[in-house]
Amino acid sequence: METMKEYRILAVDDDTSILKLLQHILELDGYLVTVCSRPEELDLSDFVGYDLILLDVMMSPVSGFELCSYIRPYVSCPILFLTARELEEDKVEGLYRGADDYIVKPFGAKELLARIRAHLRREERHQEEQYEAENCCFYPSRYQVVCFERLIDFSEREFKLLQLLARHPQQIFSAETLYELLYPESSDTQLRSISEYIYQIRQKFKQEGLKAIATVRGVGYRWQLEPEVSEV
């Protein structure tokens, strides 16, 4: 597969033989692959930074369905289930939990790679397209946001933080959760960088006469966009 980008894929399955097979197939096709056979040891930060995630359904003590429900609110990349269960209700359950596809075992290497390529292409198109949240239009490829007809430029990290809040407007994110979602586990960046990014984002909105990102005292931050009210 010719590509300008090295895609990162996470495969989670408690069967190590399946993981070895998946890793072999995917690495031959040029992907960067991380495998995990103990899903119960993973935390939220372990799922961040991947372009696609493969989950087995029948795992113990944590099933693929449970894992998908746990990570989907925080992970936007495609999630594909790999399973020997082919009943329609199982497929519906997988999609209900937030998966993007459901591949039944045994599957061929060509089918697996074709499904993965299709989802990665679709994801790239989505990232290039603009999307709206309330009175803002986000442009991911340029790290720009247009709010109330005002164009605001952000750094990559500022944009990703803002985008995360805007896509989950009813959710409150602690600084610790934002840190886990924005930085890989190996990062030596300090937690206080989150409050610094929040400050910079607010300043950029303030320059345009707007307020963004509400602080919920003792809890964290949430998306809130509104024009600043002038003091009389």
TrEMBL record:
PROSITE patterns the UniProt entry points to: OMPR_PHOB (PS51755), RESPONSE_REGULATORY (PS50110)
* Highest taxon, organism lineage: Bacteria
Residue span, Response regulatory domain: 8-120
Question: Which SUPFAM superfamilies does this one have?
Answer: C-terminal effector domain of the bipartite response regulators, CheY-like
Q: Which UniProt keywords apply?
A: DNA-binding, Phosphoprotein, Transcription, Transcription regulation, Two-component regulatory system
Identify the DNA-binding region of this protein by residue numbers. Answer: 128-225
Asked whether the UniProt record includes Protein biosynthesis among its keywords, one would answer: no
Any Pfam family hit? Trans_reg_C
**Classification via InterPro entries:** CheY-like_superfamily (IPR011006), OmpR/PhoB-type_DNA-bd (IPR001867), Sig_transdc_resp-reg_C-effctor (IPR016032), Sig_transdc_resp-reg_receiver (IPR001789), WalR-like (IPR039420), WH-like_DNA-bd_sf (IPR036388)
Where does the OmpR/PhoB-type domain start and stop, copy by copy?
A: 128-225
Q: Name one GO molecular function term.
A: DNA binding
Q: Which residues does this entry mark as bearing 4-aspartylphosphate?
A: 56
Which residues fall in a coiled-coil region?
A: none
Descriptive protein name:
DNA-binding response regulator
Can you name the source organism? Streptococcus panodentis
Taxonomic lineage? Bacteria, Bacillati, Bacillota, Bacilli, Lactobacillales
